[in-house]
Amino acid sequence: MELKFDREDNRKERLDFIRKYAEWVRSVPNDVWSSQQAVILNSFMKNAANYALSPEEYLKMKAKSSAKRDTKIRQLSQKKLRIK
């Protein structure tokens, strides 16, 4: 199944969120934002136990994905060099 979305729109949306969040962090006292960060991190840690993959399986999957991406990048680079 392929997800259909505009990568550039997604990138802009993420950057906009980061800018707004950074602005908010600068505008509130440290104890406010740090306690909220603690809540988020604690929920991540609790949810990690429910994750379908073990850490080893996840890392193996990421390595495989990275290798495929690197191969594709090399192929595209070689293709561009041949065109020029």
From TrEMBL:
InterPro entries: DUF8150
Pfam families: DUF8150
Protein name: Uncharacterized protein
Organism name: Methanoplanus endosymbiosus
Source taxonomy: Archaea, Methanobacteriati, Methanobacteriota, Stenosarchaea group, Methanomicrobia
